[in-house]
Amino acid sequence: MSTEPGLGATPGADEAVEGDGSTTAAGPAGADGPTAGTDGAGDAQTASPRASATSGTDDDGGPGGTAGPGDAPGGDATAEAAKQSEAEAELAAQRIERERIERRKAERKGPIASGAGLSGQAADLLAAIRAVESGDRPAATVFAAPEPAPSPRSAPDPVVQRPRPAPAEPAPAEETVAAVRAVLAAGGAPESLAPQAAAALGEGADALLREDPWQLLRISGVRPDQADGFARALLGAECGPDDERRGRAVTGWLLEQAALAGHTALEMPALVAALAQRAVPEPEAAVQDALAEGDALVFQDVLDPHAPEPEDDEEERPVRVLVGLERYALAEESLADGLARLVNSLSKDAPEPWEAAVAAASGGTAELATAVAGHGLVLHTGGEAARAEPAALLAAARSAGLRAFVAVHAPEGHRRPVDGAAAGDADREDSVGTVAGLLSGAEGPGRDAEGALDLDLLIVLDAPQLDVESAAMIVEALPDGARLVLSGDPAVLWSAGPGRVFADLLAARVCPQIASRTPDPGPLGELVSGIGAGELGQVAAPGKEIVIVPVRDAGEAVHRTVQLVADSVPRAIGVPAEQTVVITPGHGGAAGTRALNAALKERLNPGPGRFGGFDPGDRVAYSPAPGRTVPGQVVDADADGLHLSCAGEPVVVPRERVEQAVRHGWALTAHQAVGARWPAAVVVLPGDAAQALSRPWVYTAFSRAGRHLSVVHGVEQALPRAVAETLPKPRTTRLPLLLSTQVPPASEA
Asked: Alpha-carbon distance 487 to 497, whole Å?
């Protein structure tokens, strides 16, 4: 059997894992963005009309919010709050935080003149939205002047109050759901969408759907062609492609799809072209209608805000016209404002405790501590081994009497290098938690009298997984004078949600950037480091750390994967099946997560699936909210729902949410696995996955392995080509420009 450049070939799973171990490695790479049947930002675990399902396609919600593990509820809630599901608590807390952001934006001093340099279509769009806006409409805040940097406030006597998860919003009334179900049935849509439609559209959802059937597009997973069929069934001859209701709805749907692909806004020409592709006869008019109705916002961004004003008054400054959804516009502006506040509110002289923290640090941690002592925002980059540096900073800060906390992306992050630094802390539970737990109030410090986190230092690991909304909520919650460290590996996949916060901050260069000099050790570290640089070279693996298993087709890939997980890796490497993760590019197809999980369940935990397809002992991937995945295990089921154990915490998933929120979890996509690590990983690359591979996907998938990596390889030369040539798909964001108007470059600060 031939061996590809950079790859070691072995004839079978047993021989590969149990041979002499002198195997070289390589792996897959997947596109960083939604593709059919692949792991783009597309691991959304939401319902969609099953009529759209096709072989090899992820029909669970298309390109929408996926995967990164999260956390389980904290233990400080009252008995009543403890009955809430983690998802309800987190989403309710996020709603409250968004309201706070909107209130803050409404307080901004006043709008600046905008649009004077525009003409033609852009000017018409601005006029359209202004013609119908009231004075307090949130859209006006998009053009508001930057809020002056607040002066440091005197710290009040702290009133430490550990926040409890916010009360959950009640589920739609049964009568509302029943009425919506009747409308869906009349239009030929799946009646199972009724709870989602009632929740998304609110009271009177049935009447709204009858009046405007294209509102069905507000339900995750529904496509325009499906909404068109629903509208034809309800409206009959009145239905047509030129209906302005359709144009508005498709505009909103396209912006939602852009957000799921990572964009916080779309350039106007791209949006108009996409509307034309979807048979909207007058796409410009459709955009204007959406703006007039407040369904979207328009922005004009000067391409070079630091360029001198034109000498000729008639000369126009080059601008970029963008259209986006209000929620992401508010979040991105709030994030820029909050970061500017952290940077500008910090005293130039480091207080005595920080001097003590710097003195206690050594090696690479000393450089990081010195930067943090003198700056409100610091970026830290590095691989897995580099996590030891922010962990040591946590220990040094706490030993100096500073209030410090580390937030990780996945519950498994608790058991990685952070633990080594926090092991001696009596209150370890108060020093390390998850981002989701911090935002929901289930984990983390208390709040001071003004509602800010009672912290001097917050370290966020896995920072590339922050989307604009979660990042904005974190920054808004920090008090003036606090330090924020964002640490992560810039080579991994970006966040499942919109934005690319960490990459944008690195590019903006508005704060110190500390690059770790600590390399990841061993053959796995060497392999992953090479992939990050675009090279898939040969790596000696005398301890069988890396093994390549060539396969001819998807059926053989599934067979070899089961053999590796159940037999070869436990016997030859000593890693049991429950500590091995399988990673594949997508959910659909003959070797996607569904097919692999079915085969692995049959081998590792056979059963009738009496609890909605699940049995006690099944490994699962639980999605408490879009964009997050928590690995867990089924414990039991009863009238309350499916009982899981996730990161050692009990979780109950209500029966009506099981189909949407829980998958079998022996096999995951790379987006679902990011932020966590396992002793062993089996990365499956079937031949039909070649188009899904990219350098970030390969890097992320391969770096999930701690001790052993097996690559079930069927993509031939597509693998090294993807590593060398396929970079992340670009995302359209506004954060760099927003920051440039408020924070000078770090070299000028």
From this structure: 18
